[in-house]
Design brief:
heterodimer; A: about 300 residues; 5-stranded parallel beta sheet; B: about 190 residues; alpha/beta; 3-stranded antiparallel beta sheet; 5 helices; about 30% helix; globular
Chain lengths: ~300, ~190
């Protein structure tokens, strides 16, 4: 392990090398073990201040970052869209500059606009961690997915990974595609042609519109949440038809290899993209993903926030 | 004399060779057995990378002398350092591996060189986050002085007076893929 981390920010997986991704995963190994100690806290970021700035609502990512920061002994402030002055007309840049005036060291940003973290990273001394920006990237989610696959299967190279569902608007899918390809996995995207257009093949992945063709050869299936609250009608025929064609029902789950991992970034819609029995079954690693998310986020905060500015 | 002076930037005055290191570690193993009547309660916890290799060697000597196998472990100190944010390069964090529970046991922290004592403080902090051992002791191959904290070793391979500008280099077979050696680099 000769790589050294030199980045102030984590904006996406597209710009990272495979060495850098592996370095984060190896660092996460050490931090995962902190969660098993009697005292689950280390002083690595003592005295640093982290601001969780979530312009788009999210509970699970925010709490995961918050707990990760607390376990590293950083101080944490949470700001959500409704409590921020954005609703009073302040620009993103002004809000961020105010946060910097408070001497925040790390800014974790969730924003509905792609590129917002990059915009701030270029202007602020603080480290900026992208916690999801529009339909662009969600790097820590992809890193925890990679970590979970590596932990369960011992490697990522050569594995066949199917990402199923609402790919078109999914930053989770995009970050996963970049990360998986860099680490040598084969990726197949599965879903209706409106949500999984052939365009994606340009990234170096396969595209399939028939889930049955893919399940039997996959080593990992990653089911994305159907964001029916965001779905525009023209892309999406209806929940019933989606379940009939693409839901991972217990009948379809029988097509999977016995050691195939079933993943989901959560929150799951039981009975839509995945049946309850499948989500709770032995092949499901959905809760491992949550545990590993903490370790991966500790690693990212340590690496980006631990270097002196 | 003139020649050595010219070479000082990278040149090395060897302090210990493989045989001297072997004898020093074997003597430490004897002292550990003497000072700890219940030697099976001892855990030799090395600080990466060379402390881990030294801990394993001391354990092998204890095995040789007493036919008792004692447990070894690894303590990561990187995430317990007190100087995060003041360095331009982050230490690599590693997984701590200690036999649990630590209660009722004697943890001997093992490192290659004892200098300021800050690494040992971080190691004790790390150990305490896993539990409360009966006692913590310290074994080092080289004590070079210049302590910044009230810490002293229980077992020392060699006391080596140094000046602040000098660097003590320890090379070990497994970690460094070369012969065992300790030498001094002038600053």
């Amino acid at each position: 392990m000769t790589t050294r981390w030199t980045r102030k920010d984590l904006l996406g997986l597209r710009e990272l090398s495979s060495d850098e991704i592996n370095f984060i995963l190896e660092t996460a190994d050490a931090f995962k073990q902190v969660g098993t100690r009697e005292i689950k806290k280390v002083p690595a970021l003592r005295g640093k201040t982290l601001v969780n700035f979530f312009v788009e609502p999210s509970t699970r990512t925010r709490t995961s970052f918050e707990l990760a920061a607390l376990r590293l002994s950083a101080d944490v402030i949470n700001i959500s869209a409704t409590t921020s002055s954005l609703t009073k007309g302040e620009t993103l840049k002004d809000t961020a500059r105010n946060l910097e005036a408070l001497h925040a060291d790390i800014l974790v940003l969730r924003h509905s606009s792609a590129g917002a973290p990059q915009f701030l990273a270029n202007r602020l001394k603080a480290s900026v961690i992208n916690a999801g920006d529009g339909a662009h990237e969600h790097p820590t989610q992809a890193l925890l997915d990679l970590y979970t696959i590596r932990e369960r299967r011992g490697k990522i190279a050569g594995l066949s990974v199917a990402i199923i569902g609402d790919i078109l608007f999914s930053r989770v899918a995009r970050s996963n595609i970049f990360g998986l390809l860099k680490l040598g996995a084969q990726v197949t995207l599965v879903g209706p042609s409106t949500l999984v257009p052939r365009e994606f093949e340009k990234l170096g992945v396969e595209v399939s519109h028939r889930i049955e063709d893919v399940l039997s050869k996959a080593d990992v299936v990653n089911l994305l949440r159907i964001q029916h609250e965001r779905q525009r009608r023209e892309y999406f025929p209806g929940i019933g038809e989606y379940i009939r064609l693409f839901g991972l029902t217990k009948e379809r789950a029988r097509l999977l290899k016995p050691d195939c991992l079933i993943m989901h970034p959560g929150p799951i819609n039981r009975g839509v993209e995945i049946d309850s029995e499948v989500a709770d079954g032995l092949q499901s690693v959905i809760l491992d993903q949550v545990t590993n998310g903490l370790a991966v986020r500790m690693a990212v905060l340590y690496l980006c926030g631990g270097i002196s500015a | 004399m003139r020649q050595t002076k010219q070479k000082t930037s990278g040149a090395a005055a060897p302090i210990m060779d493989a045989e001297a290191i072997r004898r020093a570690l074997r003597r430490i193993a004897h002292e550990i057995i003497e000072r700890n009547p219940q030697v099976t309660d001892v855990v030799l916890a090395g600080i990466p990378s060379r402390g881990v290799e030294i801990a394993q060697r001391i354990a092998a000597f204890v095995q040789e002398i007493k036919s008792i196998s004692i447990e070894t472990g690894v303590i990561d100190v990187a995430m317990h350092r007190d100087d995060v944010g003041t360095r331009s390069e982050l230490p690599i964090v590693r997984e701590t591996k200690l036999p649990l529970p630590l209660e009722e046991r004697t943890v001997i922290v093992v490192d290659d060189v004892l200098y300021t004592g800050r690494t040992v403080r971080a190691a004790m902090d790390a150990i305490n986050s896993f539990g409360r051992p009966a006692r913590i002791q310290l074994a080092v191959l080289i004590d070079r002085g210049h302590r910044e904290l009230p810490i002293r070793p229980d077992y020392v391979g060699k006391n080596l007076p140094t000046s602040g500008g000098e660097k003590v280099r320890v090379r070990l077979e497994q970690t460094d893929h070369g012969p065992d050696e300790v030498y001094l680099e002038k600053g």
